Amino acid sequence: MLRLNLFYEQQRIQREKDYDPVRLTIVGGTLIILIILVVGAILYFKMEPLRKDIQGAEDQLKKLNAEYEALGKPVDFPRIQAQANAIQNHMEYRTLFATQLDILLDVIPTNCQMRLFKTARGMQQDEKSTPGRKKDAPPIITKTIVLRLEMAFEIYTEARSKVEVLQIRDQLVESFRRESRFRDWVHQVPDESGGSNVWNEVIVASSMADDPKGDSMASGLFEFKLPLVTKYQPRELK
Amino acid sequence: MKLSPEKQKNLILTAVVTATVIGGLWFLGIQGLKKKQVNDNKKLAKLQVDVKARSDAIQKEIDSRAQASAYQAFLVSFEEKMPRGNPPDTWLVKELGALAKRHHLELLNTALQPIKELSDFKFKDQPYQLVGFHFEFKGELSQIGKFLETIENSMPMVEVDEIHIISGSEVAPHIHTVDMRIAIITKS
C-alpha cells in the first residue's frame, strides 16, 4: 500500500508561502520606508521652531525696513559735524591777543616804554620721510602745513649808564621767561640750568644801547620775540 | 530553497523597486530636510544679521539726527553772528565802528583783504571762508587793549590776524597808532 504524506506537502506549500522572498522583501522594504517616514516627520516637526524664527525675523525686518523708509532721507551727519568742528576749532584755537597784550603791559616796568608791538603769522611746510613698506620701495614723504605765530615788541628805556640799561634788558628777558601767565601762549623751552622747570621762549632779536651824552641819559632799544603756540593741528597736504 | 526563474525575476524586480523607493525617500526626504535645515539656519543667521544691521542703522540715524540737530542749532546761532552782506565791509564798518566808538576810538582806512592761505588752512572743503578786514585807529594802550578784548570776546567769528602798534610822536608818545587786520568767517 502506497502511503502519501500529504501533510508534509501542505507544510511545504505553507512554508514556501510564509518565507516567500518577494513577500519578505516587500515587508522589509515597507518597514524601512515607514521608519524613514517617521524620521522625516520627526525632523519636520523639529524644524518648526526654526520656521517660526525665520518668519519672525522676516516680519521684523519688513517692519524695520518700513520704519527706516519712514525716517526719510538720511541726514549727512559727517558733513554737518565737520562743518561745526571747523567753526568750533576756529573759536577754540584762535589766539587772543588782548590777554597777551594785557600781560605784557603788566610785566613791563614803568621805566620802560613799549614802542612797537606786532604779530607775525606764517605757514611753514614740513616734510617727513618714512621708509617704504616694501623692500626697494621709495620712501613715503608726508607734507604738512603748520601754522606759525610770533609776537614781537620793541622796548625803549633810559638809565644813568649803559650797564644799567643792559641790566634792565636782562631783567626784562628774565621777567618774560618766568611769567607764568604766558604759559598757555608762549612756546616752552627747558630750564638752562638743566632742571625740570620750563621757561617761556624769549628771543632777543635786537639790542641797542647808547652811552649817556651830555645831559641825556643812557638809552636802550630792544626787540623781543616770543614764538606763540598755535593749537591748530598741522594740515596734511595731499 | 530553490526559486523558480519567475520567482527570481519577481524578487529582483521587487528588490529594485523597494531599494529605489527607499533611496528616493532617504535622499529626497531625509537628506533634503537636513539640507533645508542647514539652509534655514543660514537664512535665519543672515536675517538676524540684517535685522541687527537695520536696527543699528535706525538707531544710528536717530542718534545722528539728534546730534545733527544740536550741531545745526550751533551752526545757525553762529551764522547769525556772521557779517551780513557780500562783500561784508558795510556791516563790518558799522559794527566795528560802533564798538570803537564805545572805546572813544575812530576807525580809519578800512579795507577788505583776501586771506586765502589762512582760509584754506582752516576751512578747506567747508562752506566758509576767512575774509581779512584791515583798519587803523589811534589811542592809548589801555584803550587799545580794551577794544581788542571787546572784539575778541563779543565776536567769536573774529580772530586778530595781524596787529601792529606803534608808539606816538615825541609830542604825544602815549597815543599809539594801531594797524590791524582781523580775519572773519563768512559764508563762501
What does this protein look like?
The complex is a heterodimer of chains A (238) and B (188). In chain A, 45% of the residues lie in helices and 28% in strands. Chain A has 238 residues and is an alpha+beta fold. In chain A, strand 3 and strand 4 (198-200) form a beta hairpin. By secondary structure, chain B is α+β, with helices and mostly antiparallel strands. Chain B has a 4-stranded antiparallel β-sheet with strand order 1-2-4-3. The model of chain B has no long low-confidence stretch (mean pLDDT 88). Chains A and B meet through helix 2, helix 3, helix 4, helix 5 and strand 1 of A and helix 1, helix 3, helix 4 and strand 3 of B. Strand 1 of chain A pairs antiparallel with strand 3 of chain B.
What characteristics describe this protein?
heterodimer, A: 238 residues, alpha+beta, two-stranded antiparallel sheet, 7 strands, B: 188 residues, four-stranded antiparallel beta sheet, 4 helices, 4 strands, 21% strand
Reconstruct the topology from this structure:
The complex is a heterodimer of chains A (about 240) and B (about 190).
Chain A: H1 6-18, H2 21-46, H3 48-71, H4 77-93, H5 97-107, E1 112-130, E2 140-159, H6 162-178, E3 188-190, E4 198-200, E5 203-210, E6 218-228, E7 235-237
Antiparallel strand pairs in A: 1-2, 2-6, 2-7, 3-4, 5-6
Chain B: H1 5-81, H2 89-102, E1 108-114, H3 116-123, E2 128-139, H4 141-154, E3 158-166, E4 176-187
Query: Which two chains have the most extensive interface, and how many residues on each?
Result: A-B, 68 and 74 residues
Number of helices of chain A: 6
Secondary-structure element order of chain B, N to C? HHEHEHEE
Mean pLDDT of chain B: 88
Low-confidence residue ranges of chain B: none
Helix content of chain A: 40-55%
Helix and strand composition category of chain B:
alpha+beta
Number of strands of chain A: 7
What is the radius of gyration of chain A computed over CA atoms, rounded to a whole number of angstroms? 48 Å
Structural class of chain A comes to: alpha+beta
The low-confidence parts of chain A are none
Strand order of the largest sheet of chain B: 1-2-4-3
Shape of chain B: rod-shaped
Number of alpha- plus pi-helical segments of chain B: 4
Main β sheet profile of chain A: 5 strands, antiparallel
